[in-house]
């Protein structure tokens, strides 16, 4: 029987996260599974605790294709990094929240030991989340950069004092041109992240759609849009303007956008796979995350 390789994603910046990583690594070893760390994570963890010195390193000792699952100790930002580490393979990501309530993390730290046992028993379900495929083309139409995003792709102004001039296009047809600070193109998963802060709609994860939200636009028609998941959203930097832009995907990957550059965002053919232990209603996540007032609710019988 092939050895089971479980990626553990954690950083050494917090003492409680280091302690949690040690517990998870120890539990996996006792079960007969092989814990694996990202190369940079292992270097950082070994610097504070030599316990991690003999843990296998992803890319050096274990290939990405050999991973069964990734256990993530952290918040949504760490989960986004884990999704990047397993991109291209079938390993799902299980988030264990080590801080504030996140939308991507499955469970809280108090349930960590039980979660690891269920991973060992393969007692979990896999939920697929829509991701975005992102291409940048130059003024001649040649593709100069390709990447992906789970939360959002944003086109932002590169300098604080100058806005950018863009044309927004949906499915090959121009919709409007305007000056703005940027544009956010979001998945339902990312609708509670940058999209939400920019005034975009919250989209339930079960709904397949793409949200498009202008940032501080100088235009009469610059409202948030919700388009088909099969739509192609293009943002073109107008030539002859002074503002340069920059593309950010999930706040992790970036590319410069000179005038004439064109960003095309579509649904990715490869979703992100999340491991789920409990069927939690998204409504409950919203209430917990934003501490929404629900006093006066009379129960299910009132709306049945």
Q: How would you characterize the overall build of this protein?
A:
The chain is an alpha+beta fold and 304 residues long. It folds into two domains: 5-130 and 272-290, Probable inorganic polyphosphate/atp-NAD kinase, domain 1 (Rossmann fold), CATH 3.40.50.10330; 132-267, Probable inorganic polyphosphate/atp-NAD kinase, domain 2 (Tumour Suppressor Smad4, Sandwich). Helix content is 19%, strand content 35%. Strands 3-2-1-4-5-6 form a six-stranded parallel β-sheet, with helices on both faces. Strands 9-8-19-16-11-12 form a six-stranded antiparallel β-sheet, with no helix packed on it.
Features:
6-stranded antiparallel β-sheet, Tumour Suppressor Smad4, 20 strands, single chain, 304 residues, globular, Rossmann fold, 2 domains, alpha+beta, 6-stranded parallel β-sheet
């Amino acid at each position: 029987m092939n050895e089971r390789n479980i990626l553990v994603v954690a950083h050494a910046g917090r003492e409680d996260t280091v302690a949690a990583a040690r517990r998870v690594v120890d539990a996996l070893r006792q079960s007969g599974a092989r814990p694996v760390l990202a190369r940079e994570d292992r270097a950082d963890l070994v610097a504070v605790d030599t316990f991690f010195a003999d843990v296998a390193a992803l890319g050096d000792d274990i290939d990405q294709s050999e991973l069964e699952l990734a256990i993530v100790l952290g918040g949504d930002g760490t989960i986004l990094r884990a999704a990047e580490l397993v991109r291209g393979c079938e390993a799902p990501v299980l988030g264990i929240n080590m801080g504030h309530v996140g939308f991507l993390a499955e469970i809280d730290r108090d349930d960590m030991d039980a979660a690891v046992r269920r991973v060992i028993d393969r007692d979990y379900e896999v939920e697929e989340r829509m991701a975005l495929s992102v291409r940048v083309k130059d003024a001649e139409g040649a593709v100069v950069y390709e990447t992906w995003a789970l939360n959002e792709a944003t086109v932002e102004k590169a300098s604080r004092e100058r806005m950018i001039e863009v044309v927004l296009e949906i499915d090959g047809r121009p919709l409007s041109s305007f000056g703005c600070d940027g544009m956010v193109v979001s998945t339902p998963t990312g609708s509670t992240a940058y999209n939400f802060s920019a005034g975009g709609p919250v989209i339930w994860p079960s709904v397949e759609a793409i949200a498009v939200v202008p940032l501080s636009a100088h235009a009469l028609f610059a409202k948030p849009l919700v388009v088909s998941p099969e739509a192609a959203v293009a943002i073109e930097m107008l030539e002859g303007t002074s503002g340069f832009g920059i593309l950010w995907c999930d706040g992790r990957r970036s590319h410069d956008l000179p005038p004439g550059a064109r960003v095309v965002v579509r649904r990715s053919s490869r979703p992100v796979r999340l491991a789920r232990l409990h069927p939690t209603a998204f409504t409950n996540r919203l209430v917990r995350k934003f501490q929404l007032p629900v006093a006066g609710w009379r129960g299910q019988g009132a709306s049945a």
